[in-house]
Amino acid sequence: MQMKKTAKFVLLLDSDSTAIRHSAMELAGSDGYLLIARTPAAAVEFAKQYKPAYVVLAREGVEEKSLQDLLLKFSPETEMVVLSDQERARAMGQGA
Question: For the residues 59-73, what does the mean pLDDT come to?
């Protein structure tokens, strides 16, 4: 499938969190694309190929900053969004 260069991509490093997946879908919007990488290596390949506007990472899955740095190397304009379930719930007004 050929994608338009102006297409908005959001890359999610696989998360079991429904709230974090929902956040990624909100960032993509109705006219964007959500790419779900199952492994850090796949995330890097997606970043190289699609240059996503956002990369969404679950805080629990981010053990070191090197993955974020590597993703930014291939997609320097990308904004990193690192969330936990608790942060997502607070942002939606559901948490304490």
Answer: 74
pLDDT at 29: 93
Give the C-alpha separation, 20 to 17, whole Å.
5
What CATH class does 9-91 carry? alpha beta
Residues 80, 54, 32, CA angle at the centre, nearest 5°? 165
Residue closest to 58 by CA, chosen among 83, 79, 89: 83
pTM of the model: 0.76
pLDDT tops 90 at residue 18: no
Extents of the domains making up the chain: 9-91
